[in-house]
Amino acid sequence: MSYTDRNLTCRDCGQTFVFTAGEQEFHEQKGFTNTPGRCPACRAANKASRDGGGFRSGGSREMHSATCSACGKACQVPFQPSGEKPIYCSDCFQGQRGGSSSSSRNSGRSSGRSSRW
Predict the structure, then answer these.
(1) Are 108 and 93 in contact, with CB atoms under 8 Å apart?
(2) Contact at 8 Å (CB) between 92 and 75?
(3) What is the dihedral sign for C-alpha 95, 99, 103, 109?
(4) Distance between CA 12 and CA 8 in Å, rounded?
(5) What is the pTM of this model?
(6) Is residue 110 scored above 50 in pLDDT?
């Protein structure tokens, strides 16, 4: 199928943007049936507002102050401590885990399933 560039109007800002032949081919390959309703800038802004600028989209994580349950040192954690479970600084956390890496943690599995990592 042959594609040609198409001019579309953004539903958010009203600006005209080009839906290129390459983008149209990509949409068909992925099985998308709708044409884009937003220009690239509004799509990016909409995605950022949905993500909240969160960690996965490259934003910074909100950190909370806590006190390590093992050594009493002040630390920062990426969740709001509830007081129900112990909080560990990064050094004590590594000690709690046995200081092992993810590969050595998974190597001792007793189930017959293989690891995804």
Answers:
(1) no
(2) no
(3) negative
(4) 12
(5) 0.44
(6) no
**Nearest CA to 36 among 51, 20, 57?**
20
Q: 111: which 2 tokens?
A: 């189930």
**Could you give the residue ranges of the DSSP H alpha helices within the chain?**
21-30, 40-51, 90-96, 102-107
Q: How far is CA 116 from CA 103, 108, 109, in A?
A: 11, 14, 12
**C-alpha distances in angstroms, 81 versus 86, 94, 115?**
9, 19, 30
pLDDT digits (tens, 9 = 90+) for 5-56: 999 999 999 999 999 999 999 999 999 999 999 999 999 888 888 765 555 5
Parallel, antiparallel or unpaired: strands 74-77 and 6-9:
unpaired
Measured CA to CA, the distance from residue 86 to residue 90 in angstroms comes to: 13
CA distance 62 to 76: 10
Give pLDDT tens digits for 58-97. 556 788 899 999 999 999 888 888 889 999 988 898 887 7
